[in-house]
Amino acid sequence: MTSEKINILDKFGKLPAGDYAVGVIAKMNDYEFKIVKFKGDFLWHSHPDTDETFIIMEGTLVMNFRDRKVEVHAGEMIVIPKGVEHKPSSENGYKALLIEPEGVPNTGDVQNEITIAKVEWV
Amino acid sequence: MTSEKINILDKFGKLPAGDYAVGVIAKMNDYEFKIVKFKGDFLWHSHPDTDETFIIMEGTLVMNFRDRKVEVHAGEMIVIPKGVEHKPSSENGYKALLIEPEGVPNTGDVQNEITIAKVEWV
After folding, report:
1. Does the distance separating the beta carbons of A28 and B53 come in below 8 Å?
2. What is the domain partition of chain B in residue ranges?
3. B78 touches B63 (CB < 8 A)
4. A43-93 in CATH: which number?
5. For a Cys-Cys bond, which of A17, A102, B15, B94 suits B21, CB 3.0-4.6 Å?
6. Taking the domain B19-101, which CATH number applies?
7. Average pLDDT, rounded, for chain B
């Protein structure tokens, strides 16, 4: 833990190329701040033990719920309640700051080929 | 808890006029997202039980530590570690998103006339 400042958008330059990447940029107590970039259709999943927060930095995240969808633009945030099924998607891609407890799996209750075992610091 | 999106900058319009105001805009588990606007010199304090995160939305926060100071600009964030003395200041004012556990007092270990007993939702 340090108290250095972090430029959020600059950190995206540290992520690998591609439509999906995640990296940890800061820790607060047992919570992590992660940057995520994503383009495409993610999978339906939920996080049975925790809420999860997205703060959109660039682009638009379409957050699909079973009964509706919410378009979240740069400068907006959304908290996904614990246990609620959701499917992020984005036609043109988005960059977001993701806040959740350390160790929460990206695919929640689902495990498949895009599940990330451990998100690295960038 | 809902899963509505929140426009962070728009929420500042709900704060009362003046150089210092704080409002809660979202909750994630037992953490709160607060908006804060501040201009001037805050007081030296620390939070003995928790880290605290500032994400700067507009302007510049000068975060003073006992041995140095850090200028945090819009688009940057800083995590103040638990127990570390700090004094926020800003000549021209800043707007920030503040993330910390519910109920953490704004003046930390110090109690005086600017201590806010309970931060209201906006």
Report:
1. yes
2. 19-101
3. yes
4. 2.60.120.10
5. B15
6. 2.60.120.10
7. 95
Closest Cα to residue A53, out of B97, B79, B27?
B27
Q: Compute the count of residue pairs across chains A and B with CB atoms less than 8 Å apart.
A: 104
Q: Which residues of A touch B (CB under 8 A)?
A: 1-9, 26-29, 31, 33, 50-53, 55, 63, 65, 70-72, 75-82, 84, 86, 97, 99-101
Structure tokens at A99: 């806040």
Residue in the block written with tokens 């805050």: B42
Segment-wise mean pLDDT, segments of 10 residues, chain A, 122 residues: 86 97 97 98 96 98 97 98 97 98 91 87 96
Residue whose tokens read 């975060």: B63
Cα of A59 to nearest chain B Cα, Å = 14
* Cβ distance of B77 and A50 shorter than 8 Å: no
Distance CA B122, CA A86 (A): 26
The residues, ordered by sequence, that sit 6+ positions from A60 with a Cβ below 8 Å of its Cβ are A71, A72, A73, A74, A90, A92, A94
Q: Are the CB atoms for A53 and B26 separated by under 8 Å?
A: yes
